[in-house]
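User: Predict the structure for this protein chain, please.
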Amino acid sequence: MLGLTGKPNVGKSTFFAAATLAMVPIANYPFTTTKANLGVTYATLECVCREFGVEDQPVGSACTGGIRFVPVKLVDCPGLVPGAWKGRGLGNQFLDEVRRADALMLVVDISGSTDAEGRPGKPGSFDPLEDVKFLDEEFDMWFYQVLRKDWDRIARKAEMLREPLPSLLAEKLSGLQVEKPFIVKALEEADLASKKPGQWGEKELQAFAGRVRRLAKPLLIVANKVDLEPAEDNLERLKTSGYPVVACCAEAELALRRAGEKGLIDYKPGSSDFKILKPESLTKKQQEALNLVRERVLSRHGSTGVQKAVNTAIFSLLGRIAVFPVEDVEKLTDHEGRVLPDCYLVPSGTTARQLAALIHSELAEGFIHAVEARSKRRLGENYLLRHRDVIKIVSSKARV
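Assistant: Here is the predicted structure, written as structure tokens:
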């Protein structure tokens, strides 16, 4: 699941609506979103259907013009204001929602037209880099507060009972869905792996909290409102933040998707242009708006950035790869004869046996070998899957 975060009134709800085409409240005032919106967006990739020369029959996803759209859950969280970790604004509600996210997309008003509380102002009046700094601190303090509550007990158990510190921390942070490998790596990066927890002070605890948060909840900056003039200079400055940045105009994407939905234009999410299908159905105002989108957004940045942000979060931040499981490697069909029906987004490093378990537990229990469709090679259980692999699982137990 991807979490959409940021201070109020920066375009999160517009991004959410554009990415999901769900109808949510959109207005130019703080705290338009007072509770989390949960929807489905799509990661896109080049489908394997054209490579194999087949017409696929997706189930639970879609393929348009050789582009596969794979569903991904997206949650639009209430806006953050300074002190949210203390409960200010809708902070507690935000934290309860965002803990479920695997990665965070931080929407920033790159035009500098909203203050720290989300109140609108003149473009260029505020510094988006300051937004990143305060939001960074909010996330880190959130993790820090969770750890600090029981730190003395954790330290005693680790030293007196000799229980492994990573295991204790994994148990403590399980509610934030932090996995043990992240904890081990964070301890090493903070140079705390060999230091007794009883010797940790506030500085060490905060350093660890920041490290593990960045690993467990990787963050992408969505530089929204890039169509406004002050945005270009701020965009270059924002790239010094240490986080990946995607230039974005969510309002343009929403307009294009709605026009496409009505059959007025031919537009595919992530494209660098669109084609007007019914010019006679467009008002002069609509034509001017589409021209501005093309001129100020698509021509300058190659896309509106909404689809690019989703793809960057899935494939770069989370390191997911797409795998196509089939039962017949000659016809590329499943047990019902459907061609390339499924596309799984799995972590890089997933093995053939782990894929079998994702499909059905019994396939993994009876795993014999896998077959790769391009080469027809037999693969062992520890074969590391590659992006766009087409794989057959051979098992002694049939899929139910």
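Residues 141-214 form a domain with the Helicase, Ruva Protein; domain 3 fold (CATH 1.10.8.470).
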